[in-house]
Each structure stands twice: as C-alpha cells, then as structure tokens.
Amino acid sequence: MTAEVYGTRSCGYCGREKSMLKAKGIEYRKMIVGEDISAEAFSGKIGKPAHTVPQIVLDAEYIGEYTELAGRLRISSRGR
Q1: Is residue 80 part of a domain?
Q2: Is the dihedral angle over the CA atoms 10, 14, 51, 38 positive or is it negative?
Q3: Is 78 inside a domain boundary?
Q4: Measured in Å, how far apart are the chain's first and last C-alpha atoms?
Q5: 17, 24 contact by CB (below 8 A)
Q6: For position 17, which CATH number holds?
C-alpha cells in the first residue's frame, strides 16, 4: 500500500496523518500544494476543488481528508 499526501507547510493535521501511515507501515509521498504541485493540477488529480488539507490518495484512490483516512484504516481520528 502506498499513499500520496497533499498538504501545505502550515497544515496542522499533516503531521498526524503521516504518523498514522507510518504506524500502519504504509509508504507515503508528501506533496506541498503550491510548491510540488499547482492548486489546479491538485484539483484535477482528485477530481474536485479541495479547500482543506491534508488530502490523501491511497493506492491511486482518492480517500479525502484526515478523518476519512482514519476511517479507512479504522483508527480513531482522536488517536485512540
């Protein structure tokens, strides 16, 4: 399993989802929106405009935000 994590440098949840992925042994690639990928290309990749980060793609499937990733991996979004 591999993930692409799209975020910004000031994203508060971006560190939490990386910890979650590491705990599950999932390799990931971090992409900074506006630096590594344009906002337009990012929106095209996930198929809709995104107004919040992080946004996660898991095994080429768009998952969504942090809470959707936690649900997919069956982890509480509060870390429990």
Answers
A1: no
A2: positive
A3: no
A4: 22
A5: no
A6: 3.40.30.10
